[in-house]
Write a structure and sequence with these properties.
Structural class: alpha+beta
Helix content: 25-40%
Shape: elongated
Largest sheet: 5 strands, antiparallel
CATH class of the largest domain: Mainly Alpha
Strand order of the largest sheet: 7-6-5-8-14
Number of strands: 14
CATH architecture of the largest domain: Orthogonal Bundle
CATH topology of the largest domain: Arc Repressor Mutant, subunit A
């Protein structure tokens, strides 16, 4: 497989900065103006300014030197810091690509690729359930899109996201993605017959374990393909449903409660 690393820089309360924003910075410097650079990058003037301000906030100092219009006309150029940031960003991506490519032979035959390895090590999320799969289809209207992600041969999870998220994450059929579901969003229905409910996701499984406290219970389901799904319910519900290892159940959760992430 061809490996190409992409870097995303994050800071608290500041939008993520990745290759697209670095390319915007380069376009503005190349064109000599924010208006022309934004047009080349396919952004509105406001979106370009928001992105440039976010970068300045992240790095703590301006990356562009701008001049107001006048007899000589307005313009923009990279500051010394901006030049160094762009160069360092590209060097970092190149080094990560080299590193990941070097790992590939060592992982041969394991069924794991270097991108999955890095994601597994570095990904942090408060969601109890994080399942990797492959996008099998996307159906969209004017506002939102339903994304189908196959997490195993028998289980597909559906997520409802905005069209903007589809574009920003580069979601397309065939691409790997990770679906995140918080355990309290998962409802348990006992039995081996699919219940008739309006929720989009109805995943069959068997109880792997059920741990209860005086108030709540965590139920972990085996959904096949080496994957599990956890639900947090009340202890009363766990007792009244008679949840015990090996019992067949269905996990129910709405598509709007599923978050999609990409590497």
């Amino acid at each position: 497989m061809t490996i190409e690393a992409t870097v995303t820089l994050r800071s608290e309360d500041i939008p993520a900065i990745g290759r697209d924003r670095i390319r915007l910075l380069e376009a503005v410097a190349r064109k000599g103006s924010i208006t022309a650079g934004a047009k080349e990058a396919g952004l509105s003037y406001k979106a370009a300014w928001d992105a440039l301000n976010a970068m300045a906030n992240l790095f703590g100092q301006p990356l562009l030197d701008t001049r107001s219009g006048g007899r000589a006309g307005g313009g923009a150029r990279l500051t010394e810091t901006g030049l160094r940031v762009v160069d360092a960003f590209h060097r970092l991506e190149a080094e990560l690509t080299r590193l990941l490519s070097g790992l590939e032979p060592e992982l041969a035959g394991t069924g794991i690729n270097p991108l999955q390895l890095v994601s597994g090590f570095l990904m942090k999320t408060s969601a109890r359930n994080a399942l990797r799969g492959t996008i099998t289809g996307i159906v969209s209207d004017a506002i939102a899109a339903e994304v189908a992600v196959a997490v195993s041969e028998d289980t597909t999870i559906h997520a409802l996201v905005t069209n903007e998220s589809v574009r920003e994450l580069g979601l397309v059929a065939g691409r790997e993605a990770i679906v995140l579901i918080k355990a309290p969003f998962v409802i348990i229905a006992p039995g081996d017959e699919r219940p008739k409910v309006s929720v989009r996701n109805c995943v069959p499984g068997t109880v792997q374990r059920c741990e209860t406290s005086p108030v709540s219970a965590e139920v972990v389901l085996d959904i096949g393909g080496g994957k599990t799904l956890a639900a947090t319910i009340t202890a009363h519900s766990a007792t009244s449903l008679g949840l015990a290892p090996g019992k067949p159940v269905y996990a129910l959760f709405d598509a709007a409660h599923v978050i999609v992430a990409t590497d």
